[in-house]
Each structure stands twice: as structure tokens, then as C-alpha cells.
């Protein structure tokens, strides 16, 4: 009898083992480099499969991962096993990778790469980007301003006006001649110790320059002949007053407001004109104790007189406050593609999630040039084009089922915003879609699910 029970136990164990094996599946692929840089011998590559379909406010769940010590030369191949019974057809599952050395992250994949469901494959390629370094540009005499024109694919030229400060802060103005379009940017710069390229870190739109001489820069990886991509130093430093979307910490002390801009870390007094009152009211409504900082964002202007420590900030159009947010997160700009963007505002209309419905969101997928969006009613999808700072949404389709309450009007506003978009700008973790008149038609916030 005992022998029979023993045989039965063995059979049950084999059945359970087979069932367990039957439930195991794999996601495979390769990891390659978007940026060329050094890979130390002690490098460790980590690739993660995560479930990000549980809601933007919840922590994502890791379904599987693999770590490769001393992976050698790229491309790197990976194979992640996971429990197939945990995959739901309507769920969202993504891959992410990073390469570390001595506990420091040297490379990281940009955004989230969907896999497994909703038409996404079980095999994918992740691209690693080199994180910025803090090396000095020893050949440059700073501070300095550089100007010049660069060829443009669909306009006459792009005129550049760049100022570099010794504290690794830059301000850049670009004017697309023939299109009457202007864009101001601020942020941090660095010089790669291997390639010698000077990079302006401004999110998805990072720009790289070759340092030809202390008074000459050449825009790298751009159209046009090398001699047509030169910026030359002006006789004296010529800073301008950037007008752009700003994000940072505002604090009230002694009945005066100051603002620490997150991308540069610089502090400015806030002028009491423009849309200043909206900022003050939002600070008070947030219930922040006097003297404590609160993350805020607004369309504004940095009035910079003669140097980096002078000037002030003007609030031209208040956007919102973000209790609990920090500059450490906001100073690392989100990427346009493969980021989960929560829709906050369409035109002048505030957008919030409806009970028991999907969160209003937008995702632009890397490689496919496809996007998906919703306000919580019909799922919308289509294609997008991205070229030289211009963004357009095309072939927008989706089931036009009746939406309850105000969702129908909100969905129409989303369709109008997508149709009107011609450009975009990212400031920290916020994305603004902009129409041909330079007006913001939608405001979104990056959400990181793990």
C-alpha cells in the first residue's frame, strides 16, 4: 500500500512539474547601443520584464528579469522566462534595460518598450543611451556665446544663439527661418571624455557639437556640409531672456516668492506681475507650510541681465502645482516616445480620470511610429511623424461608441488637439503639444510605473 502511495506521489509530482513547465514562456531579444561609449570589464547588464497595466498610480510588478555579468561586446542577447498564466490580453507589459559598473548606471534604455500583448511581439530590441557625464570642456573659454546658421530640410535655415556658462548651464534659442517658428531651451551641458562631443541635455531633443576651437563649434550628426554647420563665438557674452515652459520649486519667505529652476538648479526671485496671482493662490490652496518648497510649472520668462546670478522669473501663464514632486526627478527630462503620458489638460479644460474607466493617456511607440490615446472612453490609435522638432498625428482611428456624460466632448477635444499639433516641448516630466500659432493645445505628465 505504501508503495502504491509512493508511486502515486511520483506521478503527481511529474504532472505538476509538467504543468509548471507548460506555463513558462519566454521573451527574447537583443540589447544594442544608441550612443557609442566605453564599456568597463566589470559591467553588468540587467533586463527587466514588468506589468505596467495596474494603473498609473500603482507600482509595476516585475514578472521576470535577467542579469548578465561581464557581457562582452554588443549586441547582447537576453532570454527572460515568465509565467504565461499571468499575462492578460488587455494588460500592458514592457521591457527596460540598464548597464552598470561599480554600482553606477552608465547606460539605460530610453522609455518603456511594450511586448507580448496588443500586437506587441515577444522578441524585441532595446537601445541603450549613454548617460551624461560631468566632464569639463577644457578647450572652451567660458562664459561664451556662439551664433550661426545651420541648413534645414524644410526651411531656409535654422539660426542658433547659444550661451554656455562655467557651471555647465546653457541657454539656446533656435529660429526656423521661413517658418516663423522659435524655440528657447535651457539645461545642462557636458563633454564626453571619449568622443569629445559637447552635448546639450534637453530631453528627447539633445544636441551634440564638436569643439573645433575655443571660439568655434560644429553641430554634429546633422544635415548639410561640415562647413555649413559652424557656430562662432561672439566678441562678448550675449545672454538673452528665454521664454519657455518652466518647472521648479517655488517658496515663499518674508512675503516674497523665489523659484529654483530644476533643469539648471538656479534660483530666481519671482516678479509680482503677469500670472503671479494664480501661482500664489495655488500655493496657498495646496496647504504647504510657509517656507516649504512646492513643485510648480508655468509658461514663463527668465529675465537675465548680465550674468547667471542676476535676473528674475516672470510667470506668463500658470499651469499647475505638483505636491510631493522633487527636482531630482524633474531635472531628468522624460523622453517623448515610449513614455506613458497622463493627459492633464486639453486646451483650457482640466482632465481627470472617470471612475471605473481608463486613465486619460497618450503613448508614442518607438520604432513603429504609432500612437495610442484615450480620455477614458474609446481607444484611439494612429501614426505620427517626428522631424526636426515637428510632430504631427495622422490616420487617427478608433471605434466611435457613445461616451457617457462629458467624455464625448472631451474625446472631441482630444481629437482636435491631435489634429492641431505641429510641435512639442518637454520640460522635466511635462509634455506640451503646440499648434501652428505656438499655442499649447494639450498638457501631459510623464508617469513612471516602476
Question: Your description of this structure?
Answer:
- By secondary structure, the chain is mainly beta.
- 11% of the residues lie in helices and 47% in strands.
- It contains 4 helices and 30 strands.
- It has helices spanning 2-23, 276-285, 327-330, 407-420, and strands at residues 24-33, 44-51, 61-69, 76-83, 93-101, 104-109, 113-115, 123-130, 144-151, 157-164, 169-176, 181-191, 197-201, 207-213, 216-219, 230-233, 243-253, 256-261, 267-269, 294-303, 312-322, 340-346, 349-350, 361-365, 370-374, 380-387, 390-397, 423-427, 430-434, 440-447.
- The strands form 4 sheets. Strands 22, 23, 24, 25, 26, 27, 28, 29 and 30 form a 9-stranded antiparallel sheet that branches. Strands 1, 2, 3, 4, 5, 6, 7 and 8 form an 8-stranded mixed sheet that branches. An 8-stranded antiparallel barrel has the order 9-10-11-12-13-14-15-16.
- A hairpin with an 8-residue loop joins strand 20 (294-303) and strand 21 (312-322).
- It is globular.
- The relative contact order is 0.10.
- Residues 1-8 and 133-138 have low confidence and may be disordered.
Amino acid at each position: 500500500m505504501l508503495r502504491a502511495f509512493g508511486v502515486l506521489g511520483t506521478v503527481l509530482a511529474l504532472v505538476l512539474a509538467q504543468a509548471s513547465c507548460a506555463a513558462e514562456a519566454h521573451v527574447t531579444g537583443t540589447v544594442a547601443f544608441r550612443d557609442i561609449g566605453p564599456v568597463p570589464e566589470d559591467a553588468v547588464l540587467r533586463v527587466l520584464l514588468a506589468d505596467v497595466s495596474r494603473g498609473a498610480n500603482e507600482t509595476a510588478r516585475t514578472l521576470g528579469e535577467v542579469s548578465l555579468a561581464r557581457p562582452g561586446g554588443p549586441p547582447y542577447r537576453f532570454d527572460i522566462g515568465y509565467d504565461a498564466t499571468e499575462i492578460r490580453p488587455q494588460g500592458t507589459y514592457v521591457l527596460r534595460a540598464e548597464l552598470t559598473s561599480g554600482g553606477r548606471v552608465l547606460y539605460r534604455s530610453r522609455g518603456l518598450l511594450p511586448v507580448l500583448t496588443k500586437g506587441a511581439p515577444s522578441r524585441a530590441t532595446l537601445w541603450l543611451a549613454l548617460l551624461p557625464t560631468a566632464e569639463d570642456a577644457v578647450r572652451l573659454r567660458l562664459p561664451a556665446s556662439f551664433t550661426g546658421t545651420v541648413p534645414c530640410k524644410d526651411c531656409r535655415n535654422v539660426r542658433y544663439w547659444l550661451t554656455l556658462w562655467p557651471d555647465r548651464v546653457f541657454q539656446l534659442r533656435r529660429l526656423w527661418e521661413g517658418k516663423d517658428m522659435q524655440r528657447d531651451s535651457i539645461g545642462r551641458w557636458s563633454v564626453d571624455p571619449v568622443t569629445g562631443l559637447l552635448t546639450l541635455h534637453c530631453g528627447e531633443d539633445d544636441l551634440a557639437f564638436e569643439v573645433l576651437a575655443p571660439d568655434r563649434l560644429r553641430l554634429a550628426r546633422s544635415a548639410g556640409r561640415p562647413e555649413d554647420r559652424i557656430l562662432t563665438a561672439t566678441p562678448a557674452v550675449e545672454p538673452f531672456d528665454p521664454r519657455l515652459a518652466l518647472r521648479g520649486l517655488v517658496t515663499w519667505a518674508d512675503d516674497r516668492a523665489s523659484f529654483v529652476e530644476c533643469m539648471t538648479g538656479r534660483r530666481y526671485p519671482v516678479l509680482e506681475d503677469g500670472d503671479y496671482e494664480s501661482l500664489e493662490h495655488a500655493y496657498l490652496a495646496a496647504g504647504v507650510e510657509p517656507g516649504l518648497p512646492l513643485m510648480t510649472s508655468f509658461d514663463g520668462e527668465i529675465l537675465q541681465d548680465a550674468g547667471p546670478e542676476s535676473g528674475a522669473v516672470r510667470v506668463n501663464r500658470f499651469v499647475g502645482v505638483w505636491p510631493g514632486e522633487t527636482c531630482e526627478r524633474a531635472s531628468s527630462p522624460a523622453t517623448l516616445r515610449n513614455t506613458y503620458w497622463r493627459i492633464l489638460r486639453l486646451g483650457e479644460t482640466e482632465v481627470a480620470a472617470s471612475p471605473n474607466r481608463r486613465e486619460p493617456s497618450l503613448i508614442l511607440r518607438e520604432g513603429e511610429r504609432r500612437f495610442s490615446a484615450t480620455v477614458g472612453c474609446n481607444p484611439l490609435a494612429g501614426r505620427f511623424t517626428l522631424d526636426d522638432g515637428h510632430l504631427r498625428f495622422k490616420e487617427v482611428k478608433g471605434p466611435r461608441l457613445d461616451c457617457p456624460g462629458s467624455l464625448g466632448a472631451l474625446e472631441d477635444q482630444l481629437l482636435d488637439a491631435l489634429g492641431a499639433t505641429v510641435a512639442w516641448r518637454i520640460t522635466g516630466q511635462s509634455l506640451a503639444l503646440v499648434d501652428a500659432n505656438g499655442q499649447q493645445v494639450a498638457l501631459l505628465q510623464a508617469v513612471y510605473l516602476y
